[in-house]
Design a protein that fits this description.
By secondary structure, the chain is an all-alpha fold. The protein has 2 domains: 1-38; 41-76. The protein is 67% helix and 0% strand. It has 4 helices and no strands. It is extended, with a radius of gyration of 18 Å. The mean pLDDT is 85.
Length: 76
C-alpha cells in the first residue's frame, strides 16, 4: 500500500531533482534513499546489495584504510 507524503524542500534541490532524476521518478528515488534508514528488516539486504558494487567497495576500503592511517598518527 502506498501513502502520499508532502515534503518541503529548497527550490534549488527541487529543480535539481527534476533535472537529474526526472519528473515522475522522484518519489521512487527518495524512497530508495530513505528505505534502508527506516525499514530495519531490509537493512541486511540493502547492505548486501551495496556490497555487490565492487567499485564502491574499493573506494570505501581505500577511504577506511586512509582514515585509519590518519588516526594512528594522532596525538592523544
Amino acid at each position: 500500500m502506498q501513502k502520499k507524503l508532502t515534503i518541503t524542500i529548497d527550490e534549488e534541490v527541487y529543480f535539481g531533482l527534476h533535472n537529474v532524476i526526472g519528473p515522475r521518478k522522484i518519489s521512487k528515488f527518495v524512497e530508495n534513499l530513505v528505505r534502508p534508514h527506516v525499514v530495519k528488516h531490509e537493512l541486511e539486504s540493502a547492505y548486501a546489495e551495496m556490497a555487490k558494487d565492487k567499485h564502491r567497495e574499493k573506494e570505501a576500503l581505500e577511504w577506511a584504510e586512509a582514515t585509519f592511517g590518519d588516526s594512528a598518527h594522532e596525538k592523544r
